[in-house]
Design a protein that fits this description.
five-stranded antiparallel beta sheet; Alkaline Phosphatase, subunit A; 3 domains; alpha/beta; 12 helices; single chain; binds zinc ion
Length: 471
Protein backbone atom coordinates (compact mmCIF):
# COMPACT_ATOMS: atom_id res chain seq x y z
CA UNK A 1 0.00 0.00 0.00
CA UNK A 2 2.57 2.59 1.10
CA UNK A 3 5.20 1.01 -1.04
CA UNK A 4 2.57 0.77 -3.77
CA UNK A 5 2.08 4.52 -3.91
CA UNK A 6 5.82 5.14 -4.16
CA UNK A 7 6.10 2.49 -6.87
CA UNK A 8 3.31 4.03 -8.90
CA UNK A 9 4.80 7.53 -8.50
CA UNK A 10 8.05 6.28 -9.81
CA UNK A 11 6.28 4.46 -12.61
CA UNK A 12 4.55 7.68 -13.58
CA UNK A 13 7.87 9.52 -13.63
CA UNK A 14 9.37 6.80 -15.80
CA UNK A 15 6.33 6.94 -18.05
CA UNK A 16 6.58 10.74 -18.35
CA UNK A 17 10.23 10.54 -19.40
CA UNK A 18 9.48 7.80 -21.96
CA UNK A 19 6.55 9.81 -23.30
CA UNK A 20 8.74 12.90 -23.62
CA UNK A 21 11.32 10.89 -25.52
CA UNK A 22 8.63 9.48 -27.81
CA UNK A 23 6.97 12.83 -28.57
CA UNK A 24 10.21 14.68 -29.16
CA UNK A 25 11.73 11.89 -31.19
CA UNK A 26 8.69 11.79 -33.49
CA UNK A 27 9.05 15.57 -33.93
CA UNK A 28 12.72 15.07 -34.82
CA UNK A 29 13.90 16.85 -31.67
CA UNK A 30 16.25 15.38 -29.04
CA UNK A 31 14.80 14.98 -25.54
CA UNK A 32 16.60 17.36 -23.23
CA UNK A 33 15.11 16.10 -19.97
CA UNK A 34 18.08 16.30 -17.60
CA UNK A 35 19.44 12.87 -16.88
CA UNK A 36 19.92 12.35 -13.19
CA UNK A 37 23.46 11.13 -12.55
CA UNK A 38 23.37 7.59 -11.21
CA UNK A 39 25.11 7.12 -7.86
CA UNK A 40 27.72 4.48 -7.20
CA UNK A 41 26.32 1.87 -4.80
CA UNK A 42 28.42 0.02 -2.21
CA UNK A 43 26.86 -2.83 -0.24
CA UNK A 44 28.90 -4.10 2.71
CA UNK A 45 27.83 -7.27 4.52
CA UNK A 46 29.72 -8.61 7.53
CA UNK A 47 29.28 -12.23 8.54
CA UNK A 48 28.04 -13.16 12.02
CA UNK A 49 27.99 -9.61 13.38
CA UNK A 50 25.62 -8.80 16.21
CA UNK A 51 24.28 -5.26 16.10
CA UNK A 52 24.94 -4.82 19.83
CA UNK A 53 28.71 -5.35 19.39
CA UNK A 54 29.06 -2.05 17.51
CA UNK A 55 29.55 1.38 19.10
CA UNK A 56 26.73 2.75 16.93
CA UNK A 57 24.43 0.25 18.67
CA UNK A 58 25.65 0.98 22.20
CA UNK A 59 28.62 -1.37 22.69
CA UNK A 60 31.09 0.07 25.19
CA UNK A 61 34.29 -1.34 23.63
CA UNK A 62 35.79 0.51 20.68
CA UNK A 63 35.14 -2.24 18.13
CA UNK A 64 33.85 -0.08 15.29
CA UNK A 65 35.25 3.43 14.79
CA UNK A 66 34.82 3.27 10.99
CA UNK A 67 31.31 1.83 11.08
CA UNK A 68 30.38 4.40 13.75
CA UNK A 69 31.65 7.19 11.46
CA UNK A 70 29.45 5.85 8.69
CA UNK A 71 26.53 5.74 11.16
CA UNK A 72 27.10 9.35 12.21
CA UNK A 73 26.69 10.45 8.58
CA UNK A 74 23.77 8.16 7.76
CA UNK A 75 20.63 6.48 8.99
CA UNK A 76 20.89 3.84 11.72
CA UNK A 77 18.03 1.31 11.88
CA UNK A 78 17.78 0.06 15.44
CA UNK A 79 15.39 -2.81 14.69
CA UNK A 80 16.75 -4.55 11.61
CA UNK A 81 16.00 -8.26 11.21
CA UNK A 82 17.89 -10.89 9.19
CA UNK A 83 16.26 -13.16 6.63
CA UNK A 84 17.81 -16.19 8.32
CA UNK A 85 20.53 -16.94 10.84
CA UNK A 86 22.78 -18.58 8.26
CA UNK A 87 24.84 -17.11 5.46
CA UNK A 88 23.50 -18.14 2.06
CA UNK A 89 19.81 -17.73 2.93
CA UNK A 90 20.24 -14.29 4.43
CA UNK A 91 22.25 -13.07 1.47
CA UNK A 92 19.57 -14.44 -0.88
CA UNK A 93 16.99 -12.32 0.99
CA UNK A 94 19.26 -9.28 0.63
CA UNK A 95 19.80 -9.84 -3.09
CA UNK A 96 16.23 -10.80 -4.09
CA UNK A 97 13.92 -9.16 -1.52
CA UNK A 98 12.33 -12.55 -0.79
CA UNK A 99 11.98 -14.31 2.53
CA UNK A 100 13.50 -17.75 3.18
CA UNK A 101 10.49 -19.73 1.88
CA UNK A 102 10.21 -17.49 -1.18
CA UNK A 103 13.62 -18.20 -2.73
CA UNK A 104 15.20 -21.44 -3.90
CA UNK A 105 18.04 -21.46 -1.36
CA UNK A 106 15.29 -21.86 1.25
CA UNK A 107 16.45 -23.00 4.64
CA UNK A 108 19.50 -25.01 3.56
CA UNK A 109 22.96 -23.55 3.99
CA UNK A 110 25.42 -24.61 1.33
CA UNK A 111 23.29 -27.40 -0.19
CA UNK A 112 20.94 -25.30 -2.31
CA UNK A 113 21.17 -22.68 -5.01
CA UNK A 114 19.43 -19.45 -6.02
CA UNK A 115 17.59 -19.82 -9.32
CA UNK A 116 14.74 -18.30 -11.29
CA UNK A 117 14.50 -15.06 -9.28
CA UNK A 118 15.82 -11.69 -10.44
CA UNK A 119 18.64 -10.36 -8.30
CA UNK A 120 19.66 -6.84 -7.35
CA UNK A 121 22.93 -7.22 -9.28
CA UNK A 122 21.08 -8.34 -12.41
CA UNK A 123 18.93 -5.22 -12.39
CA UNK A 124 21.87 -2.87 -11.80
CA UNK A 125 23.83 -4.58 -14.53
CA UNK A 126 20.93 -4.52 -16.97
CA UNK A 127 20.53 -0.80 -16.28
CA UNK A 128 24.12 -0.08 -17.27
CA UNK A 129 26.00 -0.49 -13.99
CA UNK A 130 29.39 -2.11 -13.69
CA UNK A 131 28.97 -4.83 -11.06
CA UNK A 132 31.44 -6.70 -8.84
CA UNK A 133 31.36 -8.83 -5.71
CA UNK A 134 34.13 -9.88 -3.33
CA UNK A 135 33.14 -12.52 -0.78
CA UNK A 136 34.92 -14.33 2.04
CA UNK A 137 32.75 -17.32 2.97
CA UNK A 138 32.44 -20.67 1.18
CA UNK A 139 28.66 -20.47 1.69
CA UNK A 140 28.74 -17.62 -0.87
CA UNK A 141 30.74 -19.63 -3.40
CA UNK A 142 29.36 -19.19 -6.94
CA UNK A 143 27.74 -22.64 -6.86
CA UNK A 144 25.14 -21.09 -4.50
CA UNK A 145 24.00 -18.88 -7.40
CA UNK A 146 24.44 -15.43 -5.87
CA UNK A 147 26.95 -14.57 -8.61
CA UNK A 148 24.21 -13.79 -11.16
CA UNK A 149 24.40 -10.22 -12.46
CA UNK A 150 27.97 -9.67 -11.28
CA UNK A 151 30.51 -9.10 -14.05
CA UNK A 152 33.19 -9.95 -11.50
CA UNK A 153 32.41 -12.46 -8.76
CA UNK A 154 35.55 -12.99 -6.71
CA UNK A 155 35.04 -16.02 -4.47
CA UNK A 156 38.66 -17.06 -4.33
CA UNK A 157 39.09 -18.26 -0.76
CA UNK A 158 42.74 -18.96 -0.08
CA UNK A 159 42.61 -20.12 3.55
CA UNK A 160 40.96 -22.87 5.55
CA UNK A 161 39.39 -22.17 8.95
CA UNK A 162 41.49 -23.16 11.96
CA UNK A 163 39.39 -26.18 12.96
CA UNK A 164 37.61 -27.09 9.73
CA UNK A 165 39.77 -27.70 6.71
CA UNK A 166 36.83 -27.79 4.32
CA UNK A 167 35.60 -24.31 5.33
CA UNK A 168 37.58 -22.00 3.08
CA UNK A 169 37.55 -18.29 3.78
CA UNK A 170 39.32 -15.02 3.07
CA UNK A 171 40.26 -12.41 5.66
CA UNK A 172 39.36 -8.72 5.51
CA UNK A 173 42.74 -7.43 4.36
CA UNK A 174 42.82 -9.74 1.32
CA UNK A 175 39.18 -9.12 0.41
CA UNK A 176 39.65 -5.35 0.67
CA UNK A 177 42.84 -5.43 -1.41
CA UNK A 178 40.94 -7.15 -4.22
CA UNK A 179 38.02 -4.74 -4.00
CA UNK A 180 40.32 -1.68 -4.00
CA UNK A 181 42.21 -2.99 -7.01
CA UNK A 182 38.91 -3.42 -8.85
CA UNK A 183 37.85 0.12 -7.88
CA UNK A 184 41.11 1.46 -9.26
CA UNK A 185 40.64 -0.28 -12.60
CA UNK A 186 36.90 0.23 -13.02
CA UNK A 187 35.51 1.73 -16.23
CA UNK A 188 33.45 4.91 -16.56
CA UNK A 189 30.05 3.37 -15.72
CA UNK A 190 28.43 3.87 -12.32
CA UNK A 191 29.00 0.74 -10.23
CA UNK A 192 27.34 -1.63 -7.82
CA UNK A 193 29.99 -3.17 -5.57
CA UNK A 194 29.24 -5.80 -2.90
CA UNK A 195 31.97 -6.62 -0.39
CA UNK A 196 31.43 -9.38 2.18
CA UNK A 197 33.64 -9.65 5.29
CA UNK A 198 33.95 -13.04 6.92
CA UNK A 199 36.06 -12.20 9.98
CA UNK A 200 33.67 -12.22 12.98
CA UNK A 201 32.57 -15.72 11.94
CA UNK A 202 34.15 -18.31 14.24
CA UNK A 203 36.71 -19.44 15.08
CA UNK A 204 37.59 -16.05 16.57
CA UNK A 205 41.17 -15.67 15.39
CA UNK A 206 42.01 -11.97 15.00
CA UNK A 207 45.40 -11.29 13.39
CA UNK A 208 48.28 -10.44 15.78
CA UNK A 209 47.81 -6.65 15.49
CA UNK A 210 44.27 -7.01 16.86
CA UNK A 211 44.58 -9.99 19.19
CA UNK A 212 44.90 -8.67 22.75
CA UNK A 213 43.46 -5.25 21.86
CA UNK A 214 40.71 -5.72 24.48
CA UNK A 215 41.10 -7.22 27.94
CA UNK A 216 38.76 -10.10 28.72
CA UNK A 217 36.26 -9.07 31.39
CA UNK A 218 36.20 -11.96 33.79
CA UNK A 219 33.03 -12.47 35.70
CA UNK A 220 34.03 -13.80 39.16
CA UNK A 221 31.31 -16.44 38.80
CA UNK A 222 32.35 -17.44 35.32
CA UNK A 223 32.25 -21.18 34.86
CA UNK A 224 34.53 -22.71 32.24
CA UNK A 225 32.50 -24.35 29.47
CA UNK A 226 33.05 -27.86 28.13
CA UNK A 227 34.40 -28.14 24.58
CA UNK A 228 31.78 -30.01 22.57
CA UNK A 229 32.32 -32.46 19.75
CA UNK A 230 29.34 -30.94 17.89
CA UNK A 231 28.72 -27.53 16.33
CA UNK A 232 25.50 -26.70 18.21
CA UNK A 233 27.06 -24.64 21.02
CA UNK A 234 24.39 -25.89 23.43
CA UNK A 235 25.88 -25.45 26.92
CA UNK A 236 29.43 -25.60 25.61
CA UNK A 237 31.97 -24.43 23.06
CA UNK A 238 31.24 -25.74 19.55
CA UNK A 239 34.01 -27.90 18.11
CA UNK A 240 34.72 -25.48 15.25
CA UNK A 241 35.22 -22.61 17.69
CA UNK A 242 37.79 -24.19 19.98
CA UNK A 243 40.82 -21.99 20.61
CA UNK A 244 43.71 -24.05 21.99
CA UNK A 245 41.69 -25.66 24.75
CA UNK A 246 40.50 -22.31 26.21
CA UNK A 247 37.24 -22.75 28.13
CA UNK A 248 36.39 -19.31 29.59
CA UNK A 249 33.51 -17.73 27.64
CA UNK A 250 34.83 -14.20 28.36
CA UNK A 251 37.96 -14.93 26.31
CA UNK A 252 35.88 -16.04 23.34
CA UNK A 253 33.71 -12.91 23.61
CA UNK A 254 36.84 -10.76 23.66
CA UNK A 255 38.33 -12.45 20.60
CA UNK A 256 34.99 -11.97 18.84
CA UNK A 257 35.15 -8.23 19.60
CA UNK A 258 38.71 -8.12 18.25
CA UNK A 259 37.63 -9.80 14.99
CA UNK A 260 34.99 -7.08 14.62
CA UNK A 261 37.62 -4.38 15.23
CA UNK A 262 39.82 -5.99 12.58
CA UNK A 263 37.03 -6.09 9.97
CA UNK A 264 36.09 -2.51 10.90
CA UNK A 265 39.60 -1.32 10.12
CA UNK A 266 39.38 -2.65 6.56
CA UNK A 267 35.81 -1.43 6.13
CA UNK A 268 37.20 2.02 6.98
CA UNK A 269 39.81 1.66 4.22
CA UNK A 270 37.16 0.64 1.70
CA UNK A 271 34.83 3.54 2.56
CA UNK A 272 37.73 6.04 2.47
CA UNK A 273 38.59 4.86 -1.01
CA UNK A 274 34.99 5.12 -2.18
CA UNK A 275 34.80 8.66 -0.76
CA UNK A 276 38.05 9.58 -2.50
CA UNK A 277 36.61 8.67 -5.90
CA UNK A 278 33.03 9.87 -5.46
CA UNK A 279 31.53 12.52 -3.21
CA UNK A 280 28.70 11.81 -0.76
CA UNK A 281 26.34 13.19 -3.37
CA UNK A 282 27.38 10.50 -5.82
CA UNK A 283 27.42 7.41 -3.64
CA UNK A 284 25.07 5.21 -1.68
CA UNK A 285 26.38 2.93 1.06
CA UNK A 286 24.39 0.17 2.73
CA UNK A 287 25.92 -1.71 5.64
CA UNK A 288 24.51 -4.81 7.35
CA UNK A 289 25.42 -8.27 8.62
CA UNK A 290 23.93 -11.56 7.48
CA UNK A 291 22.96 -12.68 11.00
CA UNK A 292 24.06 -12.44 14.62
CA UNK A 293 25.69 -14.93 16.99
CA UNK A 294 24.49 -16.44 20.27
CA UNK A 295 26.76 -15.50 23.17
CA UNK A 296 25.11 -17.63 25.85
CA UNK A 297 21.44 -16.78 25.21
CA UNK A 298 19.24 -19.81 25.99
CA UNK A 299 22.46 -21.71 26.74
CA UNK A 300 23.78 -21.42 23.16
CA UNK A 301 27.39 -20.29 22.87
CA UNK A 302 29.35 -18.88 19.92
CA UNK A 303 27.09 -20.28 17.27
CA UNK A 304 24.32 -19.35 14.80
CA UNK A 305 21.91 -21.06 12.45
CA UNK A 306 19.90 -22.65 15.25
CA UNK A 307 17.33 -20.07 16.37
CA UNK A 308 15.48 -17.01 15.13
CA UNK A 309 15.58 -15.12 18.45
CA UNK A 310 17.18 -11.64 18.52
CA UNK A 311 20.70 -12.88 19.44
CA UNK A 312 20.86 -14.42 15.94
CA UNK A 313 18.22 -12.36 14.08
CA UNK A 314 19.00 -8.77 15.10
CA UNK A 315 21.46 -7.20 12.65
CA UNK A 316 22.91 -3.73 12.12
CA UNK A 317 21.57 -1.77 9.15
CA UNK A 318 23.05 1.59 8.21
CA UNK A 319 22.31 3.61 5.07
CA UNK A 320 24.19 6.62 3.76
CA UNK A 321 22.76 8.27 0.67
CA UNK A 322 22.33 11.75 -0.74
CA UNK A 323 19.11 13.40 0.42
CA UNK A 324 18.40 10.99 3.27
CA UNK A 325 17.87 12.66 6.63
CA UNK A 326 20.51 11.39 9.07
CA UNK A 327 19.57 9.90 12.42
CA UNK A 328 18.23 6.85 14.19
CA UNK A 329 15.03 5.03 13.27
CA UNK A 330 12.92 2.60 15.25
CA UNK A 331 10.79 1.07 12.48
CA UNK A 332 11.17 -2.68 12.09
CA UNK A 333 13.10 -3.22 8.86
CA UNK A 334 14.47 -6.33 7.20
CA UNK A 335 17.03 -7.66 4.74
CA UNK A 336 14.24 -7.86 2.14
CA UNK A 337 14.07 -4.05 2.18
CA UNK A 338 17.62 -3.63 0.88
CA UNK A 339 16.98 -4.46 -2.77
CA UNK A 340 14.05 -2.04 -3.24
CA UNK A 341 15.77 0.60 -1.12
CA UNK A 342 18.97 0.56 -3.17
CA UNK A 343 17.13 0.50 -6.51
CA UNK A 344 14.94 3.41 -5.40
CA UNK A 345 17.90 5.45 -4.11
CA UNK A 346 19.64 4.93 -7.45
CA UNK A 347 16.51 6.16 -9.25
CA UNK A 348 15.26 2.85 -10.64
CA UNK A 349 11.81 1.38 -10.62
CA UNK A 350 11.15 -1.09 -7.83
CA UNK A 351 9.85 -4.47 -9.06
CA UNK A 352 6.35 -5.58 -8.04
CA UNK A 353 7.01 -9.18 -7.13
CA UNK A 354 9.12 -8.65 -4.03
CA UNK A 355 8.47 -8.80 -0.29
CA UNK A 356 10.40 -5.73 0.91
CA UNK A 357 9.74 -2.02 0.65
CA UNK A 358 11.88 0.96 -0.38
CA UNK A 359 12.87 2.77 2.81
CA UNK A 360 13.84 6.09 1.17
CA UNK A 361 10.26 7.43 0.84
CA UNK A 362 9.59 6.55 4.50
CA UNK A 363 12.79 8.23 5.65
CA UNK A 364 11.96 11.35 3.67
CA UNK A 365 8.46 11.44 5.17
CA UNK A 366 6.80 10.79 1.82
CA UNK A 367 5.04 7.65 2.98
CA UNK A 368 4.13 6.39 6.45
CA UNK A 369 6.07 3.56 8.09
CA UNK A 370 4.64 0.17 7.15
CA UNK A 371 2.45 -1.87 9.43
CA UNK A 372 3.75 -5.39 8.91
CA UNK A 373 5.57 -8.39 10.32
CA UNK A 374 8.95 -9.48 8.95
CA UNK A 375 10.39 -13.00 9.12
CA UNK A 376 13.64 -14.52 10.27
CA UNK A 377 13.19 -18.09 9.09
CA UNK A 378 15.34 -21.18 9.65
CA UNK A 379 12.87 -23.67 8.21
CA UNK A 380 12.14 -25.60 11.37
CA UNK A 381 11.90 -22.40 13.41
CA UNK A 382 10.80 -18.90 12.44
CA UNK A 383 10.08 -15.63 14.18
CA UNK A 384 7.79 -12.91 12.90
CA UNK A 385 8.97 -9.52 14.18
CA UNK A 386 6.69 -6.53 14.70
CA UNK A 387 7.06 -3.16 16.42
CA UNK A 388 7.00 -4.46 20.03
CA UNK A 389 8.33 -7.98 19.87
CA UNK A 390 8.07 -11.21 17.97
CA UNK A 391 6.01 -14.37 17.55
CA UNK A 392 8.11 -17.51 17.36
CA UNK A 393 6.85 -20.65 15.66
CA UNK A 394 8.74 -23.87 16.30
CA UNK A 395 8.45 -27.46 15.06
CA UNK A 396 7.21 -26.21 11.69
CA UNK A 397 8.87 -28.91 9.62
CA UNK A 398 7.64 -31.67 11.93
CA UNK A 399 4.10 -30.28 11.69
CA UNK A 400 4.43 -29.95 7.93
CA UNK A 401 5.64 -33.51 7.56
CA UNK A 402 2.77 -34.73 9.74
CA UNK A 403 0.21 -33.37 7.28
CA UNK A 404 0.12 -29.60 7.75
CA UNK A 405 0.26 -29.23 3.97
CA UNK A 406 -2.97 -31.16 3.39
CA UNK A 407 -4.75 -29.58 6.32
CA UNK A 408 -4.82 -32.62 8.61
CA UNK A 409 -1.59 -32.58 10.65
CA UNK A 410 -1.13 -34.90 13.59
CA UNK A 411 1.33 -32.48 15.12
CA UNK A 412 0.91 -28.70 15.55
CA UNK A 413 3.65 -26.08 15.39
CA UNK A 414 4.60 -24.47 18.74
CA UNK A 415 3.60 -20.82 19.04
CA UNK A 416 5.02 -18.34 21.55
CA UNK A 417 5.02 -14.54 21.79
CA UNK A 418 7.72 -12.27 23.22
CA UNK A 419 8.17 -8.61 23.95
CA UNK A 420 11.54 -7.33 22.76
CA UNK A 421 13.39 -4.06 22.31
CA UNK A 422 17.01 -3.82 21.05
CA UNK A 423 19.48 -3.98 23.91
CA UNK A 424 17.00 -5.78 26.18
CA UNK A 425 16.28 -9.42 26.96
CA UNK A 426 13.12 -10.77 25.38
CA UNK A 427 10.20 -11.58 27.70
CA UNK A 428 7.45 -14.12 27.12
CA UNK A 429 3.98 -12.57 26.91
CA UNK A 430 0.54 -14.16 26.75
CA UNK A 431 -1.65 -14.41 23.72
CA UNK A 432 -1.21 -14.15 19.97
CA UNK A 433 -4.05 -12.58 18.06
CA UNK A 434 -5.77 -14.71 15.46
CA UNK A 435 -5.04 -12.30 12.60
CA UNK A 436 -1.30 -12.41 13.22
CA UNK A 437 -1.46 -16.20 13.35
CA UNK A 438 -3.26 -16.29 10.01
CA UNK A 439 -0.72 -14.00 8.37
CA UNK A 440 2.23 -16.02 9.69
CA UNK A 441 0.61 -19.32 8.76
CA UNK A 442 -0.07 -18.15 5.24
CA UNK A 443 3.62 -17.28 4.96
CA UNK A 444 5.06 -20.61 6.10
CA UNK A 445 2.49 -22.75 4.27
CA UNK A 446 3.60 -21.49 0.89
CA UNK A 447 7.18 -22.58 0.62
CA UNK A 448 8.58 -22.72 -2.91
CA UNK A 449 10.78 -25.71 -3.81
CA UNK A 450 14.46 -25.49 -2.99
CA UNK A 451 17.00 -26.16 -5.77
CA UNK A 452 20.08 -28.30 -5.21
CA UNK A 453 23.45 -26.53 -5.48
CA UNK A 454 25.91 -27.36 -8.24
CA UNK A 455 29.00 -29.44 -7.69
CA UNK A 456 31.97 -27.56 -6.21
CA UNK A 457 34.44 -26.20 -8.74
CA UNK A 458 37.36 -28.37 -9.78
CA UNK A 459 39.79 -26.05 -8.01
CA UNK A 460 37.81 -26.38 -4.79
CA UNK A 461 37.66 -30.17 -5.09
CA UNK A 462 41.40 -30.25 -5.69
CA UNK A 463 42.01 -28.25 -2.52
CA UNK A 464 39.60 -30.39 -0.52
CA UNK A 465 41.41 -33.47 -1.78
CA UNK A 466 44.76 -32.01 -0.75
CA UNK A 467 43.34 -31.51 2.74
CA UNK A 468 41.87 -35.00 2.88
CA UNK A 469 38.21 -33.91 2.72
CA UNK A 470 37.28 -35.26 -0.69
CA UNK A 471 37.66 -38.55 -2.52
ZN1 LIG B 1 26.99 -15.95 7.89
Amino acid sequence: MNAGSSISNRRLQGFAIRLCALVLASAGIGCNAPERPRPNVLLITVDTLRADRLGAYGFERNTSPAIDRLASRGVVFERAIAGASFTSGSHASIMTSRYTREHTIGYMNGGTRLEGITTLAEIFNREGYQTAAFVGNIMLDRRIGLDRGFEVYDDELPQAEQNRGFAFERIAEKTTERALLWLKNRDGRPFFLWVHYQDPHGPYTPPPAFKGRFRPEFDPDEEPLPILDTVTGLNGIPSYQELDGIRQPSIYETRYAEEIAYADHWIGELISQLDAISSDAESVIAFTSDHGESLGEAGIYFSHGSTTTPDQAHVPLILRAPGLPQGRRIETVHHVDLMPTLLDLAGFEVPDDISGIALGPILRGESPPPNRMVYCDEGFDLSAYGPDGFVRVGDILAAWNSGEANGSPTMAPRWAAYRWAPGEDWQAVDGIDADSKDVIRSYFRHAIPMVEAREPSELRVERLRALGYAE
